[in-house]
Each structure stands twice: as C-alpha cells, then as structure tokens.
Amino acid sequence: MHRRSPCFTVLGLPLLSACGSLSPLSPPTTPPGTVPVAASWHAPMPHGGQTTDLRRWWSQFDDPLLAALVADSQAASPSVATAAANIADARAARQAGQAALLPGVDLGAGASRSRPEPGAPIVNAVSASVQLAWELDVFGAARAGAQAAQARLASSEAAWHGARVSVAAEVASAYVDLRACEAQVRQLDQDAASRDRIAQLTVRATQAGARSPAAAALAQASAADGRVTLLRQVTRCDLLVKSLVALTAREEGALRVELATRANRLPQPREFSVTSLPAEVLAQRPDIQAAERDVAAAGADATQAVALRWPRITLAGNLGTARTRSAGVTTDGSVWTMGPVSVSFPLFDGGTRRANAEAARERHGAAMRLYAARLRTAIQEVESALVTLQSTALRQEDAATAALGYERSYRATSASYEAGAASLFEVEDARRSLLSAHSTLNDLSHERLLAWISLYRAVGGGWATPAPAADDAPSRLPAGDTTALTSDLLRR
Length: 492
Description:
The protein is of the alpha+beta class.
C-alpha cells in the first residue's frame, strides 16, 4: 500500500481548488447573428461580358494613360504605404507570438578578481553559463496568442490588397470624371459658339429694323449665360486634373500634356462577366477576407483570455562552467541547475481575468457581427453595380434617339429663325432640349463607366484568397476557408 506524500497533498490541494474554482468561459464558435441573403444574385448580369483576369483589367482599357495613372497611384498612395507598414508590424507580432511557444535561452558570462580577507591570496574567477526559461503552454494561452497574431497578419495582408484595389478604383473614377467633364466642355463650347452666332445675327437684324431690341437683348443675355456655364465647367475640369495630380504624384504640367493627347474621350473598358455565386465572389474580396481573419483573431484572443485564468507553469535551469585561480591553484569544472519548476496560481485578482475573458468574448461577437455586416454590404455593392449597368444599357438607345431628334429639331428651328419664320424663344427652347439630350448621353456613358469600376471593386479587383498555412488552420473559427464561412453565413 502506497502512502501519499504530505508535500504533494499540501501542494496539490490548492492547485485542484484553484482549477476547480475558475469556471472558464468558452469562446463562441458559432455566429451570433444570421445573414438573410439568397445564394444567387438578385440583379441582371451584364450582356456580352467576358471572363477576364481583373488583375490586368486596367491595361485592357483602350486608354494606356489610365493604366499608367493607376500604376503611379499605387506607389504614391499613403493608404497603401500604411497598409504595408501594418503588415510589417503584424509579422513582428507573429514572430513574437511564435517565440512565446519556445524556451528562452540566454548566455551569461562573468569575471571577478578579489581578496576575500586580509592576507588571503587573490582569487581570480571566470564563469560562463547558459540559462533556460520556459513557460509550459499547458492550457494553450501561448498557442492561442500565436494563432491570433497569424490571423492578424493575414488580415493585414488582405487589407493591403484591399487598399490597392480601392486606390485603383479611386484614380480610375477621377480619370473618368475628368474625361466626362471634358466631353461636357466640348458640348458647352459648341453651345456657347452657337449662342454667340445667333446673338450677332440678332443684333444685326435689330440694327436693320427686322428684330426688336428685346430680341437682341435676349440673344446677348443667352450668349453671356452660355459663356458662364462653359467657364464653370472648365474650372471643374481643372480641379479634377489637380485631384489626379494629388493621387498619382505626377508633375501637373507633364500630366496635362499627356491628357491633351486623348482629350474629350471617355475610355472604354473590356466588359467582364460575374459568373460565380455570391459566396464565391465575396470570398475574393480582400475586405471580406480581412474581416474573416479578424473574427479568427478575436476568437483566438478569447481562447487566450480563458487560458490565462488557469495556473501558469514555468521551468528554469542553467548549465555552465567556472574557473577559479588562487595562490597558484586553478580549479575548474561544470555547474548546472535543473529548476526550479514554479507554478503561479491565479487565486484572487478582483475579477480581472474573468472580466478580460468576458470582454474578449464580446469582442469576438462584435467581430462576427461586423463580418456579417460587411457581407451584406458587399452583396449590396455588387448588385447595385449590376443594376446600374442594366439600367444604363436600357436607357442608352432611347437617349441616343432623343438626342438625334432634338438635333434635327434645333437645326430646323435655327434655319427658320434665320429666315424670319421662327422666334428666338423657339430657338432657345430647341437649344436647351438639344443640350439636355447631349448631357444625358454623356452622363449615361459616364455613369456606365463608373458602374464598371464599382463592379471591379465590388468583386475584389481580381484578388484571390491565399491558401492558409498549415499552422494557421486551427485558428479559424469556424474551421475552413473564407468561402466556407461565407457560404455558411449566407445559408443561415
């Protein structure tokens, strides 16, 4: 019959008591909310679109300057630079997290020269040792911390890709805005020239007594109003050029020279198709991947916070050599120590650890809800772009027909006015209708281009979800890649 060691009994009871009184909180592993989104798109697909590599989409426009501006913006963007710096920080944090799983090893060395007491010989001592300290990760706190750091690194990498996509879309939108503005300037310039010509004809007719002074005043006022509108639009275009300068860090004079080579022309994109299901498309969005990794990091944080409520066990030791010389006698040899093995019991901390665990659990729930919200927003962005593309396609034919009809009407009315068969009011009304029709056509082309850019951004800009590292798989909550988690949420 074996008798228990009194020492074990004394040391073991507090350990068992402490472990039993912790009542640890388990981090949530199921989403706290649901995403009531159908598994198919509720928007029409663009007709004639082709499957294309969106990573090279800008180079597939019929405007090489656009692709060059997008490339310049990547190097000039502070948001891309900040995202890159965040990756470096996350890598350092991951390295620190992984290092916490390993023993800490230090090398120490020392030398001394002393006379222990009066008349005693001088003692020279030299020593060197290797010290080891290792916190045993019995309850998984260090591993959970390493998993959280790995997840945050993946999140920061996805955020960097997202920043690049956003900057590219922003520059492209500004460029398209400028080209649409220039097209509007061209129309307004033609309109202002027409108003000036009619004003000159009306003044001559008034001087000859064929027109009333009121008609001449109206014609001159119309010409002045046309010039004001034109100058306002030219100013808007100048401001858009300056926006491009700020986004791309190009020299303004050189940029204006390049812009002038293709002025007044909207770039035409290569239309692409969206053939994947919503869950598959959303899995290719960097912001969705970043949010999913943030959920994994928050889950690992919750696991770590729970594990920190359990006892911590630390093992220490050292191995070294020492040499002592005194009165011509040299003594040397090796020294070593195994231990101590120390156990830290979290008996009472005023509820700090429990509060930290509860807070970590709430942060995980908040990250999950944010992820679900981003999924809904992403669906809305894709479908909004698809709806806009469909709408502009349906309106374009009728708008072109209307513009052609108004142009014929204006020409006929102008000819009648010059022949004295129509009033200036009729000419002005026909001109306003024609200008409005041309503006509508220009706005439709502009809106359609912006919708393509929005769709490019909404489907992730050609970014692909990277394969998870083997040591990162356990940190996923729930397990699986982004597509699996997205599909799970969309089905709920």
